[in-house]
Automatic annotation (TrEMBL):
Domain of life: Eukaryota
Alphabetical UniProt keywords: Coiled coil
Organism, scientific name: Panagrellus redivivus (Microworm)
Organism ancestry: Eukaryota, Metazoa, Ecdysozoa, Nematoda, Chromadorea
Region Disordered, residue ranges: 157-206
Name by which UniProt lists this protein: Apoptosis-stimulating of p53 protein 1
Coiled-coil intervals, chain numbering: 34-131
Length: 481
């Protein structure tokens, strides 16, 4: 019985243990299901939040889109108004353009009329120049006659002379343009051609004339020059530089030593020292304000003019044919073509500017050369690279420039001008003026740094240059030695 009870109790315990295990398993299953449900619940909540965020973003985007649409509508309305305003402006511009075209047509007609008047004026000017030349010749004849009469009166020589012709209203020699090639005596020229009058009222009493550094040389003739006879009419040459002496100037003294003729003229405020060398006919004129002229009566005459900036630094102007050469103490060199307005400007750094003008346009073509490189500025403002070697700046008259062996040379039909590009030569240059079919030429050496000019008449004999110094010496400038 006890065994049976024990057996039943063990069976009961086993059943209870089995039930407990089943409940434990069910609890674990329940816990697992609960965790799964909670996890899904969290996922659902997250999805709900994401949907809410997307909804808010969609609402914001819709609001922004509505604002952008409203902005575009406003811009479209503004653009429409601007288009209408532009149409009105275009209509006004069309009216203005039509008016300008009418004005342009009227100006063309006016220009044609002015050109016709200009041609008529040119014809009248040619007639006036012809008359002026006749009057000038009469004036020269009168001066020559008066000069001979005065000299014959001094030497008690009585001859029957022609009756003087009444003088013309002016005694200045016109150049190729009908103007005096230089300013009146007492006028100082600046480096750009501007003129400033000298106040002669401040000059009181005699002024000591300072010597000017100019030397003149001439090659010896095959035959000796005959001595000058002051009583011989044919021996008296025209005095070109006397045209720069006022008519009211009084001759205070006159001297001739067989080589040079010297005259001194005075006005109440000015003093003039004129001289001429008989052998070569070169004239000089020194004014008390230190203006200096030299005229070389060559086949192509050369006129040298020195206007002082200070007593030691002078601007030098040389006129040959239709070319005016300006040299300044700053070592800038300029060549102006008076017949075409073309010009060449050379800086102290040897940078060269060539200006080409044309009747068709007021804007020039500018060529700039620096070393072996060059560039051209066309009339429309565009730039073009050009060669800087060989013959450059070729003009219609056949002149051109060539740079080689530290020397810049300008070739012209009547002269050559050579300038050293070496800075040790102080910007000095040499001008050679030639005679046609002759072995003679005129040589002008200039040092702008020391304001020295040396003029030589040169003759080739047996392929060698023969020179004879008349006055001055080369020691006055180390660059010309």
């Amino acid at each position: 019985m006890a065994e049976l009870m024990r057996h039943q109790m063990m069976s009961f315990d086993n059943v209870v243990d089995g039930i407990a295990k089943r409940y434990a398993k069910l609890d674990s299953i329940r816990e697992s299901k609960l965790h799964q449900v909670q996890h899904k619940n969290k996922d659902y909540q997250k999805q709900v939040e994401d949907l809410k965020t997307k909804l808010r973003m969609s609402q914001n985007n819709e609001k922004s889109a509505k604002e952008e649409v409203a902005k575009l509508k406003r811009q479209l309305e503004t653009a429409g108004r601007e288009i209408e305003d532009q149409k009105l402006k275009n209509a006004q511009v069309s009216k203005t353009l039509a008016s300008k075209r009418l004005e342009c047509q009227n100006q063309k007609e006016e220009l044609a009329r002015v050109n016709a008047e200009r041609d008529k004026f040119k014809q009248d000017l040619q007639k006036s120049n012809s008359l002026y030349g006749t009057l000038e010749n009469n004036l020269r004849e009168e001066r020559r006659t008066n000069y001979l009469l005065n000299r014959m009166a001094k030497e008690n020589i009585v001859h029957e002379m022609p009756k003087p012709v009444p003088p013309p209203p002016s005694n200045k020699r016109p150049d190729s343009h009908g103007r005096n090639p230089f300013g009146p005596v007492g006028q100082i020229r600046g480096p750009l051609g501007s003129a400033s009058s000298t106040d002669s009222s401040n000059v009181g009493g005699p002024v000591k004339l300072k010597p000017v550094v100019v030397a003149v040389q001439r090659a010896p003739e095959d035959q000796a020059q005959p001595s000058r006879n002051h009583n011989n009419v044919e021996a008296i040459n025209e005095d070109y530089l006397m045209e720069y002496v006022p008519e009211d100037a009084v001759m205070d003294s006159e001297n001739w030593d067989g080589i040079r003729e010297v005259r001194v003229y005075n006005t109440p405020n000015m003093h003039y020292l004129w001289s001429r060398i008989d052998a070569c006919g070169c004239e000089t004129l020194l004014v008390n304000n230190h203006d200096y002229h030299q005229y070389c009566a060559f086949e192509t005459p050369v006129h040298i003019f020195m206007a002082p900036f200070t007593e030691s630094n002078r601007a030098i102007t040389i006129t040959v044919d239709n070319v005016r050469i300006n040299s300044f103490p700053s070592k800038q060199l300029e060549l102006h073509r008076l017949d075409s307005s073309d010009k060449t400007i050379i800086k102290d750094s040897n940078e060269r500017y060539e200006y080409f003008y044309s009747a068709e346009s007021n804007a020039p073509i500018i060529e700039v050369f620096n070393g072996n490189t060059g560039r051209r500025q066309n009339r429309d403002g565009t730039m073009t690279n050009i060669a800087g070697t060989g013959q450059t700046a070729i003009r219609a008259d056949g002149s051109y420039c060539i740079v080689e062996n530290e020397k810049m040379t300008f070739k012209h039909q009547w002269f050559d001008l050579s300038r050293s590009t070496n800075k040790n030569f102080g910007g000095g240059f040499r001008l050679a003026v030639y005679e046609s079919a002759s072995d003679r030429y005129l040589q002008v050496s200039v040092c702008p740094e020391h304001s020295v000019v040396v003029v030589k008449h040169v003759k080739k004999v047996n392929c060698q240059d023969q020179k004879e110094l008349c006055t001055g010496h080369h020691s006055q400038c180390q660059h010309l030695k």
